[in-house]
Amino acid sequence: MSDTDGRADGRRGFADLLLDLRVQAGLSQEELADRAGLSVRSIREIEAGRVARPRKDSVRLLASALGLQDPSQFLAAAGHGTARRLVQPPVVSVADAAPTGLRWRGTRPIPDGLVGREQELFELETLLRQNRLVTLVGPGGVGKTELALAAADRFSGADTTVVVVDLTTVQRDAAVPSAILDAFGTAPGTSDLDDVLSGRQPGDLVIVEDNAEHVLDGVATVANRMVRSFPGVGVLVTSRIPLGLPDEVVRRVQVLGVPANDENFEEIAASPAVEMFCRRVARVRPDFVLTPANAPTVARLCRRLDGLPLALELAAARAGSLSVETILAALDDRFRLLSGPRRFGAPHQRTLADTIAWSVDALSDAARQLLYRCSVLGSPFTLEAVAGVCTGDPIDGLDVAMLLAELVDKSLLQPVLEFEQLYGARYKLLETIREHAYAGLSSQGGDLVEFRDRAVAWCSTYVAGLEGAWSSPDRDRQYRAAHANSALFEVALERAAELGEWDAAARIVLGFRIAWQYQASVAESGIRWATLCASQVSDKEVSGRLLAIAGRLSSLTGDIRGARRHYEEARTLIPGETEMGLVARGGWVSSGSHLLDTQSLAEIPALVDDARKHGDVQRSATVQATCGLALLRWGRLVEAKELLLAWEAALVNPGVYPDEIAYMALSRVDLELGNLSEARHWAVLARDSQASDDPERTKVAGCLAMVEFHDGRYDEARALLDQADADIRGHRGYFDYLVMLYRSRLARAAGEVEQARVSIRDAVNRLLLEGRVVYLLEVLPEAVAVLHALGRSDAGDALCGQLLAWQRSMDPPMLPTAWAILQESCESASVADGWPEPDPAAAVQRLANDVLAALS
């Protein structure tokens, strides 16, 4: 048998095995795909024998979905040899039961959510294969989202990543890039998309940007950049308006087909609108079936709803308590009642408004008023915010939870399950329902003004309650609870700005400052409000405190230069000995150390002295830890350890709590000093002090991996880096470059030169993008080693000569671990001429750009 025949036989063998196991498990291809987190198309391709060697990760997912206790033979049949026993997945709640395979991020298509769209789905799949940017256009409720999700699922293979970006809560065009990064699962760490989009092969990544119409300019700008700069990325947009880009292919999503008459039962049953309505009714009335007796009524109802999917959903939800005849009659009444105000809209928009109005009219007076009032809260919002802003006749505060449950049950309010573990229960209104509710509130005299003003008052009171939270043992819980209402704080700030109440706005910003740090797109909103309020308030010290907040948030979003600029101005406006003055000075020192500014280093002694005199032990400890980190970056290891140990000694005081970043800094200092056992001790403390639900697990896993690497425990280091890699894909943080650096060192030691090249290139890219120049001095020596391993000795020696000149004449020096790597790689290099350089940061960035060119 030839090799080709052997491969074909192997494909067929695994295909038959998979088919047998699936049938034995009683699963359809769709059900198995749903359990495994793969596309139905992938299952079909494998069972048809058209996949020569399925990916190992895909085979493992299939084995887990099939419930195989020992998947080794299954893996071997797929061509992956012997495998270890799979760890059984944890038990999850019903709410979390949807598959969450790494290839799909965000909302997944509902298994039976698409009805009567097969032709459109086929066309859209073809368009996605032929075009880079496709926009689905249509009115709200027409089903654009489900069609887009189904098309992305149909298009994608086992190796395709689908990222779904829900733009509903994005309120500014400038926040669209951060919203996309958040959909990838990121935390504050960068403000650019290059590092998640570059290096993709065609078909590797599909980004679905959903509900784009209210941030059209922002979506168009980003989509145009993706299409023009990243050939491996496909973009699918849903919007009520086309983007207007030259590369855009626009397809209008039509309503579902409705029966042409009431007499022909077969024609009625074949109608997509009737099929969808009947499926949804069966969810609330399992005994419901379409019969010749009720078919004419169903047909008339579907026609009256124009075949609009959202309208069908809302009507069907009522079938649990009302007959189809009653629903149709009620809709007829509401059509006549509301046809005037909506006469200017398209028919399907009038019908959608009628459907929403009918649902709202059926509520109790208290539930309806709560729905109206929730429309001013932004989205998402929490029960606490509803109780704080929306109560008052006829809504009793004790009834709020029950009324919210009623609105959820009647499909007028949606629970937000994403990040529920971190931020608790949240709710959101669909935009079409929110618009209707907002109009209802506006029609009630001065209610709209009253509840917008209440939002300002509630947020002002709320932030006053956050005073002292930083020193509280449950500070993360308090700040995350505040962050869960970030949309409401945006509403309050907009209202305060509209009224010119800038002092009130400033108080809200100052009180909310920490809560803005939990999500990149929200942090950008904080920067905007902090700088805007700083420019409007008359009190210079308040302005300086606001700019200090802008500096902190800029640093978190990866804009080190912006952080430096804000801190620079803040420290000129705030007395340096006050708490916020110390914050501004500490931020200025920290951002300056990233940018190789020697003035920052000179500020440290005076800053530490003032912090110790301040009297607040917690603030003094924080400043010393901040300065210790800056000194570590500058290679002043003994001085850095002294300040970090002072922070550690302060933990005995009330209000001072363990912080994993400071522990990690101590671990790094001892690692560089050669104290391996102490480095391990601090790394373990960092792990133990990190919150169990902290999304930025990367940093601690990377810290532990470094210790294991230098202890010669490469397998353990690799396992930790694998864990950190998974977290990088989810939530980015300060220290991800170290994960990439040590991934390169491990790969190079194992002879995996291509992996080393990719890892070190990504690390250099990341640091250049964020402006963290000082860390490039740790990464560039590894780049020299990688260039030599790749056989590019001339480029390696040239870079090595430049770094040798840096070490001889510039400050800060390379850290010992980086210097050791450089010395191993520089046997044939000579020190470069032209040093010292007048601009250290520019010199390092020039070397980094040369490295990127050499590694490309």
From TrEMBL:
Q: Which SUPFAM superfamilies match?
A: lambda repressor-like DNA-binding domains, P-loop containing nucleoside triphosphate hydrolases, TPR-like
Instruction: Name the source's superkingdom.
Output: Bacteria
- Which Gene3D superfamilies does the record associate with it? lambda repressor-like DNA-binding domains, P-loop containing nucleotide triphosphate hydrolases, Tetratricopeptide repeat domain
Residues in HTH cro/C1-type domain copies: 18-74
Instruction: Give GO terms: molecular function aspect only.
Output: DNA binding
SMART domains this protein is in?
A: HTH_XRE
Under the heading Pfam families, the entry gives: HTH_3, HTH_77
Q: Which InterPro entries match?
A: Cro/C1-type_HTH, HTH_77, Lambda_DNA-bd_dom_sf, P-loop_NTPase, TPR-like_helical_dom_sf
Give the protein's recorded name: ATPase
Q: Write down the species.
A: Kribbella rubisoli
